[in-house]
Amino acid sequence: MKVLFLAIACLGVGGCSTLPRTLARHGTEPVLSSKLRVGTYNIFIGTRDLTRTVGVIRRMDADVVALQEVAPRSAVVLGKEFSRDYPHRYFSAGLGIMSRFPLRNPRFQRSRRGINGFLFAEIEHRGGRVQIANLHLDPLRIWTVQEKLTLPFQFGRQRSIHRDELAQAFENLRRGVPTILLGDFNRASNAAIDKLREIGFTDSFAAFTPRADRIPTLHFSMLGFHSGRRVDFIFHDRTFYTDRSQVLSGQPSDHDAVVSRLRWNTGATNEKNDHLLPAAASTSCVVHQTPKR
């Protein structure tokens, strides 16, 4: 992932049941809440310091956590560590969702054009069901000399791939259901975030933070100088508004965690959100598959 953005910098691209509840920590009795705290965190596939990773997730204190680059061993460790805090968990193919609320219909789908994929689920909340899409969009291919030589072509192609990946994700989302999309967008272009904004979704962190792109969530070094880029996002439809959003240090990962506190927008209804989805568009479980970058 770091090499990906070094390549971008070298080419001059910018940025080198059933009652819904909020569960208190340590297994205490959940309490009803109109708030929903959601977070996304790419824990880094090669991490060996899972103790610090666990610490980051605890600091996030989110009701629903979307994770990327979760190795099979990491899924086992996190499942045990958070068995009480997040009784509802689902891991598959390097992605994970951990929730304080019951998960309904969790499922993974491989990207038709990319090397990663998407994890979908619905949660039960006081405001009704909310559908969650954990996205790990396609990265640039830079692992061989031959692939690096094709970078100029890849930059143009990635815009098309990301648009197609969003379309595929929306095929799995139900119209009229409050929707949150979040994850690692592998942002070498703005194709994905521009499309989501165009169809009416809100970039949660940017809605709360002036000049949000000046706060990177991916960190890397080039020629001894630290650099970074905002690549991790939380988007929500008009059912919600962002009450608070922040970036938390994600070390030992090269990604930081993003957490937003959402509240229900009383002026919005599910029917009013129908147009946000393109026309094309629970038992705890752990599935171990090999994740991809």
CATH topology grouping: Deoxyribonuclease I, Chain A
CATH architecture: 4-Layer Sandwich
Low-pLDDT segments, ≥5 res: 2-32, 280-292
Distance N to C terminus: 7 Å
What count of helical segments does DSSP give? 7
What's the SSE pattern?
Answer: HEHEHEEEEEHHEHEHEEEEEE
Write down the overall mean pLDDT: 84
Helix content: 10-25%
What's the main sheet like? 7 strands, mixed
- Strand proportion, as a percent range, falls in 25-35%
- Total beta strand runs: 15
Give the overall shape, derived from the CA principal axes: globular
Instruction: Report the C-alpha radius of gyration, rounded.
Output: 18 Å
The number of domains: 1
Secondary structure category: alpha+beta
User: Considering the protein shown, what is the CATH homologous superfamily?
Assistant: Endonuclease/exonuclease/phosphatase
Q: Which CATH class is shown?
A: Alpha Beta
Order the strands across the largest sheet as they lie in space. Answer: 13-14-1-2-4-3-15
List keywords for this structure.
disordered N terminus; disordered C terminus; single chain; 15 strands; seven-stranded mixed sheet; six-stranded mixed sheet; alpha+beta
Descriptive account of the structure:
The chain has 293 residues and is of the alpha+beta class. A hairpin with a 6-residue loop joins strand 5 and strand 6. It contains seven helices and 15 strands. The chain has helices at 2-10, 50-60, 72-81, 145-149, 151-171, 191-198, 204-208; strands spanning 35-42, 64-68, 88-92, 95-99, 103-110, 117-125, 128-136, 179-184, 202-203, 218-222, 225-229, 232-236, 240-248, 257-264, 285-286. The protein has a single domain (2-286), classed as Deoxyribonuclease I, Chain A. It starts with a helix and ends in a 7-residue tail after the last strand. 24% of the residues lie in helices and 31% in strands. The chain has a seven-stranded mixed beta sheet with strand order 13-14-1-2-4-3-15. Strands 5-6-7-8-12-9 form a six-stranded mixed beta sheet.
